[in-house]
Design brief:
single chain, mainly alpha, 2 domains, 2 strands, about 60% helix, Questin_oxidase-like, Questin oxidase family protein, oxidoreductase, oxidoreductase activity
Amino acid sequence: MNIDGTLDEAYERLHRTGPEFEGWLSNHGPMAVESMVRRGHARQVHRWLDRYTRRLDDRPRGTSPLTTDGWRTALGDPQRLGDWLVFFEREVTEQPWRTVLETWWPRLLPGIAAGATHGVIRTGHAVHALLDHEDGPRLTELGQALGYWAARWQRVPSAPPSGTADPASALAGVPRVPDQSAGINHRLDQLTSLTSWPTALAELRPATDAGQARKLLADLTTAASEYYLPNAHGSPVMLVHAATAPMAVLRTLPALPSTQWVMSLHAAWAAAAAVTAAYAPAAPTPRHSLPSAPESADEVFDLAVRHQDEHVIKLADTCLDVHQHTGHPDALAAVIRATDLIDEF
């Protein structure tokens, strides 16, 4: 089977659909199929899409073309989603995609909460695919990912790391927002008035150079993946993004100049901490009640694909990378927990 061809075919099917459906839900199709193809499940992709695309809406039309000088007023305006898609489709065809990414990454990073972090996650998957092979459908996918991020751009209150805590300790110290009764925007809005929020963000030890930033970002991804295991019941779906968002940033680093790596760590940390603050449970599940990891990592991704839920597939993709680099069994057990808590597709 032509693996590159399968992914490109899947992208072409998905590019007829919009980045959102049912008002604001994120289209996870491009992220899930990229993971499935890369993990050796290309044969399942089109069958999975046959079911998934029934839920999706058509791609939105643009209303007023954006220009390279007038984009600021449209940043974070979901009504301009169609315009942003057209804008970035043009950008990635008129200049090298790495140039586009280098230009827009610092502009978009402060709004990393966009679409419940799905803007950066979709971008990370697109970059991962382009680093493997560059062609038209993959360039289009990067354009759609960046356009979605720009349209849903949303700030998270941030503070630069200045403490001594490792990522796992810093994440464990993140305070919960007081009202967890509504959606993510309501929860993130509470961070501004949460007096302990800046202190919690500052607890993470800082990176003094690009190499340290990459190491801390990898450790953050590991910490968030393992945090999911005992805390997933807070929100089995939403807490997935505390791990998949920093993984998306980590996977994008090779395509960025090293001068942007420290700012990437700061944004990823703010995003992971914000999702944790918004959805962490009052108490973790006792260790004796948690699932254990299977012996085979491949078995975990097979299970995720059989489960079919897009969040389970994305989490499995992240956790397998964590396990590959750390050998920590809790990363695999986190995926088992997700299959237990998230309804099958």
